[in-house]
Amino acid sequence: MEDINMPVVAKKIVDEVLSLPTDARVSLVEQLLTSLNLPTQPEVDRLWAKEAERRIAQIEKGKVRLLPGDKVFSDIRKKYQR
Q1: Which of 24, 44, 58, 68 has the fewest CB atoms nearer than 10 Å to its CB?
Q2: What angle do CA 80, 81, 82 make, to 5 degrees?
Q3: What confidence tens digit (pLDDT) does each residue in 37-73 have?
Q4: What span, in angstroms and rounded, lies between the C-alpha atoms of 28 and 34?
Q5: SS3 for 70?
């Protein structure tokens, strides 16, 4: 991992971490990701379910116009000439 901008201390930490067994590295990655306060999978699932419910409600109320999938993909191919 050659990065001239990486501080010496960070490089030492990375070198040491890379020498750990796989399960220890996975655990460390999970802990680091958690520390970033990113949405968890259950939170992502909950948000997608909420979005799906919103879209279903729009369809049921007639607020959106549905298009057949074939038309959508045909339009995309035409737009990008593929």
Answers
A1: 68
A2: 95
A3: 888 889 999 999 999 999 999 999 999 999 999 999 9
A4: 10
A5: helix
One-letter amino acid for residue 62 of the chain: G
- Asked if 18 contacts 25 with a C-beta cutoff of 8 angstroms, the reply is yes
Residue 4 in this model has a pLDDT that exceeds 70: no
Q: Which one-letter amino acid corresponds to residue 26?
A: V
3 pLDDT band, cuts 50/70/90, is low
> Which residue matches tokens 């057949």?
68
Q: Per-residue DSSP letters for 4-62?
A: TTS-HHHHHHHHHHHTS-HHHHHHHHHHHHHHTTPPPHHHHHHHHHHHHHHHHHHHHTT
Is residue 40 within 8 A of residue 32, CB to CB? The reply is no
Token pair 């796989």: residue: 22
